[in-house]
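User: Let's play a game. I give you a shape written as tokens, and you guess the letters that built it. Ready? Here's round one.
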């Protein structure tokens, strides 16, 4: 959890992310949902499966962009 939060925070601090408000909102949202799932009351009703699907979609998009 600590490493995940560190990477998210580093991403938020990266000046290259400042060009897209939508991107910043999405990164902040994933941080919020992840913390809610791991240590909060899970008010969003996240599960391991739903989080895995969410992150898999980004992995697929990143893979497509690099090919």
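Assistant: Ready! My guess for every position:
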């Amino acid at each position: 959890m600590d490493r995940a939060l560190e990477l998210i925070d580093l991403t938020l601090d990266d000046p290259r992310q400042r060009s897209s408000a939508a991107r910043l909102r999405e990164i902040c949202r994933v941080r919020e949902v992840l913390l809610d799932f791991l240590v909060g009351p899970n008010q969003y009703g996240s599960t391991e499966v739903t989080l895995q699907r969410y992150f898999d979609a980004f992995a697929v998009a990143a893979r497509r962009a690099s090919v």
